[in-house]
Each structure stands twice: as structure tokens, then as C-alpha cells.
Amino acid sequence: MVYIPEGEFLSRIGPTEFYKDLEKYASKNAVQDWKKLLDAILPLSATATALPPLSIRGDLGVLSTVAARYAPSLLKSFIQMGPQGALGATKLLRPFSEIVDSLELEDPF
């Protein structure tokens, strides 16, 4: 069950069903904005899971920790993301609101 200010309704799991619900309770523009948001954050998810936050230390030992254990998975995700994606991985260190604001989404859904 989904509870929103516009009402409550039963929603199925899955992207196509969610798009239908979003269009019904928000707008067609909300669906486009949602897809735009997903296109921006999905590439970052591989990098976010390649390096667990607990592996990041506050000293120079972080280099040995990351290089020894997580370098292969980080390298793999950077290769999959390409040069622009790898450089964009620094977005993970900034507030999520900056990513959302940079997309200039129009619908508040």
C-alpha cells in the first residue's frame, strides 16, 4: 500500500508499474524526470558498492586498504562507467541534493 497526500493506492513492484502510478498521481513530466534521475544515479551505484564506506580511513593507510582489497572492483566499475563516469564518481562524496539540483528536474514528485 502506498500513502501519499493525493490518496492511497495499491502499487505493484517494478519500473513499468511505478511509471504508471507516477503518471497517474503526478504527471507525464514526472515520469520523464524520474527516468532522468535514474540515468544519472544508476552508473554511480556500481562505484558506490565497489568501495564500502567503512573501508575509507582518515589517514594515508586508506591507500593500502583500498589498493589491496578493493582496487579490482573499483577498476572494473570505472571501466564500465567510462572516463566521464569515473570522473563523475566524485559526486558520491557530495550531497545527493547537488546531483538532483544539477538535473534541473521540474516535477516535485
Automatic annotation (TrEMBL):
It comes from the Eukaryota. GO terms for biological process: carotenoid metabolic process. This is Uncharacterized protein. It comes from Citrus sinensis (Sweet orange).
